[in-house]
Amino acid sequence: MMAFNKQKAFGQNFLINQSVIQTIVHETEKKISENPIQTLIEIGPGRGALTEALLSTLDFNELELYLIEKDFDLIEFWKNKLASSQAIKILGEDFLKINYEEFFIKNKYGVVSNLPYSAGTAILVFLNKIAVLTNKIDFMILMFQKEVADKVFAKIPGKNASSLGVMIQNNWEIKKVIDVPPSAFKPMPKVNSSVLCFKKRDQPLINGFEQSEAGLKKIEKLLKDLFLHRRKMLKSSFKNSKNHLDLLEFAQVSGEKRAQDLNWSEWSSLYENMD
């Protein structure tokens, strides 16, 4: 196998712990059995530890596997390795730059990835956008830095609720699969990691949420505004903004609350009453 280093892998820490790898693979196999898909996507296969386990466990006679990798050396490695395969394809591109309208053309997709720490949040937000606009991603099994995973998974309402958590939980049922220590990677990171499983909801939790570009921009603005000063009560955050104070009144949401205190009914009311 080619020699790769951390720099060439764009900062990715390669997963080497077989127990963690098998846990991810078994969760993927379970989700596919529950939600038949046409294509499984692995973002950033790297050296292929997870990929090899997927290939040896799943039946790719009827299931297509797409590997999306942006490192040139790794792209060439995978092209050579998979030259004779019909069901397994490599797309040499930065996932954040793909034309999702041209790529997501099958009925249903699943996504699995040990996400690079530097791009994990951005990729999750982009995947959420794709899922909302195309309705083609059925499930995702993703590894993040634990700090990010905790934000995504935090209870709503709750003291650790975040704008990212509200945005993602609106569209996905989420469960934690496993926490992963630094020793599971090479080179070892300085932080812990977590694997989360996402199942697309049939209906968003926010009533009236428009599954469109406009709907996404609307919820992003609402979340940005309300979480801007998360330690302050909303009435204090908005004391110089009549529009925001009017929104709280129209939505019948108490200005005594902070953004992390809002329940899904209140998020729905705020969303529905926005201009």
Textual characterization of the structure:
39% of the residues lie in helices and 19% in strands. It has 275 residues and is of the alpha/beta class. It folds into 2 domains: 14-200, Vaccinia Virus protein VP39 (Rossmann fold, 3-Layer(aba) Sandwich); 213-273, Helicase, Ruva Protein, domain 3, CATH 1.10.8.100. The strands form 2 sheets. Strands 4-3-2-5-6-9-7 form a 7-stranded mixed β-sheet, with helices on both faces. α5 links the parallel β5 (109-114) and β6 (137-145). α1 (18-34) crosses α2, α7 runs antiparallel to α8 and α10 (242-251) crosses α11 (264-273). Mean pLDDT is 92; it is low at 1-10.
Keywords for this structure?
275 residues; alpha/beta; Rossmann fold; Helicase, Ruva Protein, domain 3; 2 domains; 7-stranded mixed sheet; two-stranded antiparallel ribbon; 11 helices; 39% helix; elongated; disordered N terminus
Oligomer: single chain
Quick check: average pLDDT? Answer: 92
Discrete helix count? 11
Largest sheet, strands/sense/barrel: 7 strands, mixed
Query: Do you know the CATH topology of the largest domain?
Result: Rossmann fold
Order of helices and strands: EHEHEHEHEHEHHEEEHHHH
The overall strand count is 9
Q: Describe the global form.
A: elongated
Distance between the termini: 57 Å
What portion of residues belong to β-strands?
15-25%
Low-confidence stretches: 1-10
User: Architecture of the largest domain, according to CATH?
Assistant: 3-Layer(aba) Sandwich
Spatial arrangement of strands, main beta sheet: 4-3-2-5-6-9-7
Structural class of the helices, strands and pairings? alpha/beta
Number of separate structural domains: 2
CATH class of the largest domain: Alpha Beta
Helix content: 25-40%
